Structure formats: structure tokens, C-alpha cells
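= Protein in question =
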Amino acid sequence: MADIRSAGPAGPARPPRPPLVPLFTSAPTPGTDESAFPKDPDSFAGMLMAFLCIGSVATANIPRKLSDNGITHILNVSSFPSIPNNINTPGITTLDCPIDDSPSQSLFTILLAALEFIETANKDGCKIFVHCQAGISRSVAIVMCYMIWKTHNTPDAILTEIQKYRPCAGPNIGFSVQIALFAKHANAECNVSLPLAEIINLAETEYNALMAKQK
């Protein structure tokens, strides 16, 4: 079971949002440490937005790199702690949502907590680093879902943008199916004002039905 905070009651419905808004900044945000990227897949991946970036557990365990880039929040979806106990990193708020990088792994078990954590960092004017083990599949899947929810762009469009900053990015096939289902419900005009928890529930229900048919 994911090591996450229990989700509270669903908040008020969101107001209608435009069908399409810009994805990411057209260029990496000035001042982010990305000198080794994209040659080094474990490097700091520059800001996808003014507050959001993706990378690996290796980067998450370098306090100096985090502080130099103004990171205040870490979302870890790998199977390892973001900050080992022997590293003192003041000023960092961490949420661990461990999942396996497996096609059979459900994203929906952690999706609400993960997306709410990212959104909280955004609303508080903070910077968040989202990582898994290699910064290729799990972390990318979570960030894709966040961007789908916020921009209503397609999974393909969002992944293409992420790959401009992190060419190695690519969720596994099982995650890709779940991302597509999440996008289907998040982008549906009839669902645009639904709380995030309800959108996730719709996608998870359809995913579970799909998996049941394959047994």
C-alpha cells in the first residue's frame, strides 16, 4: 500500500476551464541547473514549468543541487526514500508514494495524493522536484497526469514537450494505458468542473473493468 497521507473529503467543484492552455515554457527556465542535460539522463531536468521539474533519485539525494535550484518540495514515486536518513536537508517537504515500474502497477492508488501535493506546491509558490528511480517512467507518468488535468492537452502532446527537456522520458505501456484513460475523463467536457477525486475514480473504474476483461 502506498505510504501517503490519507485523502480528505473532495473539495468544491472547480470552475469550467478553457479547453486548451499553453503547455510548458518554450525554453528551460533561466537559472535552473541543467548544464549536463540532456546528455546525462540523471541530471537535473530544468523546470518544465516555473515550479515543476522531473529527475532521478540520484538528483534527489544531492541537497546542494536541490537548494541551488530552489526546490522546497519532493514527490518521490520510486521504491526508495527521497532523502536518506543520513542526509540532513532542512526546508524540504517530501511525500513518498512508492509504486513499482511495472505494466500491472496501478497509478490510481497514489494519483490523488500525488497530484494534490504538486498542486499545493504550485499554489504556495514553491518549487517541486518529482522523481522515481531513473526519472523515466513513474515520475513522468505522474507529471503527465498533472499536466493533463491542468492544461487539457493530450498525452502525446505533453510527452513530446517533456521529452524536449528529458529525452529519456517514457512511461511503461501499462502506465500509458492509464494515462490515456485519465485524459479521457479529465478532458471530457462534461467532467470539466468535477473534483479531481471524481475524475480519478471514473478513470480507475474504467481501468479496473478493462483489466477484469483480460483475466
